[in-house]
Amino acid sequence: MPAPMRPLLLAAVLAGMLAPAWADAQASPYIPLDDSRLPLLEHLITRGEIEDPSPMIRPFRRADAIEALAAADTLGNSSTARLIRKLRGDFTDSVGNSWAVEGRAGGQAYTHARRDLLHPAGPKGVRPYAELGGWATFGNIVLVTRPVAEPRLTVDPDWQGRPDLKFTGRIADAYISAQFKYGNLFYGQMDRNWGPVGLPGIPLSNYGYERQGLGIDIGTKDLRLSAFATDLQDEVDSLGRTVHRYYFVHRLYVRPWRRLTFGLWEGVVLAGADRNFETRYRNPLSFSYLANTIGLGDKGNVLLGLDAHWRAFRHAAFEAQLALDDFQYQNRNGPDRLADRWALTIAAFGPLGPLLAWRAYYTQASSLAFRTFSRFEDFTDNGVGLGRNFSDMDQLTFSVSVPLADRWLATPDLTLLRQGEGNIEDPFPATPAEMGQTPQIFIGVVERTFRLGLGIQGRQGPLDVQANAGLHHIVNWQHEDGRTVNRFEGRIQATLGLRRQGVLR
């Protein structure tokens, strides 16, 4: 563990050790974002049948899902009631100290190696896939590990590991978590997403695979503070010096009314030759933009954000996420004014008839979003976005979720993606004049993708399937004016598994 992160971990451990006995609670693993049963849970949340355990923050714990399902469980025999009872049974673990081991093996087939179907890259192929996961709970402590053998990674352009091997793998989950009534402490790695379901979150997402770091989550359902600190990959500057890079993101969640929640968050990228992860940047109760950027002053790239979640009626809910990068509060009309950089998402969802659910969202990122004058302070890690991986774009999607036989979820969707030539890895404009000539959004020839797609996810006995495919009509393909193509893009992963669990004595 990096030395600068030790004080935060020590404080977290002491807080857990000093927690009074009445604050104890049995620890529980988090539900991985790639769990094929999670979409059925999200379907129930979308319909408003169960309460969202952590609005716009994923993952949540199995215990949180069980609590939400138990509160909605009824003796009825409707399709929704059966689905709630089935999921409650799936995620209910042995009482007290327990363990579980699960192995899965199968294969993957894909039309391109990148997981993002709307930005195809890499070759097509068929590859084997296998994982072996296990967890154990000891009172307030849970240990989780899930190594994965996944040869596809070697040709995925977003994979940050070794591309020179024919066979490679990753650790999808590996963490220790101490959990109490009013707080959870976390060290290790797993997929995270901070934002509306269905899109990579702006401040933090699993687009670039799991990320290792130290996290804390403290509070109640009405007031909660979350923070996550992680190292980024070192780079080398033009003088041959090693540049150390770090990322800290924290979020204050407030629920003033039962149906309305807000989240104020901030992400900070620090970089420099021989730089440390200074303590003042890892204070979850500090406001770095005020304390450091316009306070003490320092070279750090700060992204400010606001989340909102409103269950307006039983039949509709709305979410929004807005981010501003280095917002200029003075000299806004001067010749040297920096361009505002932003990203936003607006989402709406609700039930459709007695069983289905609908979801719609619009998202946009400006042409210079996630970049700054020093490329070492961009919101990227080894060229892959920490949250979003693409700027200079907008996207409109409408989807419907359809549960099938209480085990599967089908999700047809319609999408329009407009992608400009601005790239998250491009150099930032070097002068005010160059910046003034850069469009706020949509640089160059805009590629437009019209998608009609279908996703299928679920688990029946030992069989687990996750598939998504669509027909893409692409105008100005690869940003060539007037070039139009029609493509089929898809991927499927199918595995068979065995599971064993028991009680620790």
State the order of secondary-structure elements, H for helix, E for strand: HHEHHEEEEEEEEEEHEEEEEEEEHEEE
Summarize the biggest pleated sheet: 18 strands, antiparallel, barrel
The CATH class label is Mainly Beta
Uncertain residue ranges: 1-5, 14-22
**What fraction, in percent, of the residue positions are helical?**
10-25%
Mean pLDDT over the full residue set: 90
The CATH homology group name = Capsule assembly protein Wzi
Please tally the helical runs, counting DSSP H or I stretches of 4 or more residues.
Answer: 6
CATH topology: Porin
- Which of globular, elongated, flat, extended, rod-shaped describes the shape? globular
Total beta-strand segments? 22
SSE-based structural type: mainly beta
Any idea what the radius of gyration is?
23 Å
Per DSSP, what share of the residues sits in E-state strands of 2 or more residues?
Answer: over 45%
Which architecture does the CATH hierarchy give at level 2?
Answer: Beta Barrel
Count of domain modules: 1
How far do the termini sit from each other? 32 Å
Looking at this protein, list some descriptive labels.
505 residues; mainly beta; Porin; two-stranded antiparallel sheet; 22 strands
Structure, described:
With 505 residues, the chain is mainly beta. The chain has one domain (3-503): Porin, CATH 2.40.160. The protein has 6 helices and 22 strands. It has helices spanning 6-17, 38-47, 62-72, 79-91, 288-296, 432-436, and strands at 57-58, 98-110, 125-138, 141-149, 169-180, 183-190, 193-194, 211-219, 223-236, 242-257, 260-273, 300-313, 316-325, 341-352, 356-365, 380-381, 384-385, 393-404, 408-419, 447-460, 463-475, 484-503. The chain has an 18-stranded antiparallel barrel. A two-stranded antiparallel sheet has the order 1-7. A two-stranded antiparallel ribbon has the order 16-17. β16 and β17 (384-385) form a beta hairpin. α3 runs antiparallel to α4 (79-91). The longest helix has 13 residues, at 79-91. The radius of gyration is 23 Å and the shape is globular. Residues 1-5 and 14-22 have low confidence and may be disordered.
